[in-house]
Design brief:
By secondary structure, the chain is an alpha/beta fold. Helix content is 30%, strand content 31%. It has a 7-stranded mixed sheet, sandwiched between helices. Helix 5 (158-168) runs parallel beside helix 6 (188-197).
Length: 254
Amino acid sequence: VARFVSDTLLVTVVINGNKLDDVNLLIDLLKQKFNKFGLNLNINKQKNNVILSNNFVEVYGENKITLSENGIAYSINNRSFLQINEEIKSEIYGKVFDEIEGGIVIDAYSGAGLLSAMMSKHAKMVYGIEIVKPATELANQIKKQNGISNLQNINGDCSVELPKLVEHLKNESKISIVLDPPRKGCAAKVIGAVKDSKANKILYISCNPSTLARDLNMLVSNGDYTATLIQPYDMFPQTKHVETLAILSLKKAN
């Protein structure tokens, strides 16, 4: 598994044993091609379709790359998720920033918190919810690194934390909810909490058209919301995969 960003290469070799033979030869070959690189091992002895385990071993060189995007400094390593298509990602995020300007934002399924941090520059307050603890820790590192005061990262299940947050913010007049779930889409309790919130805007970023269609159908089922944008993006050219941004707006009472 390799990642080359900002003239730095991070390489992770996945093995099903405890050591890699000829590791010094690999290091020498990498030195011939790259001025800055890091080599890690990932020991995965499980017999399943999961590529990376949680057992990383640093072998040589760099272990992270520091980047800056939309005024937010952050670091990535071999464990970090990073969208590979910068141009398309910027288009999607730009539309999100335009929609949330000046209000309160809930970022459900917020991952390592990069989008939450970026949105803090456009919003009054941002709440990120993420179930994976190491991802929330990374989000808090980004928050601290950039001195962000209008951001709270919550570690927990969206099905549990989102209803509580919606209740806490029930008296706020301008709320947007950003949904960026895994391929399986949103849990039923998340959909219910979003509908109960009466948020002004729902911005749904999806990598799976099937679960997106299912969830949008549930979100508009009671007639409170209307879809104002459903825009597919060719995030992964020459593949069958597509990224989609859907924007729902709360209908004004008659």
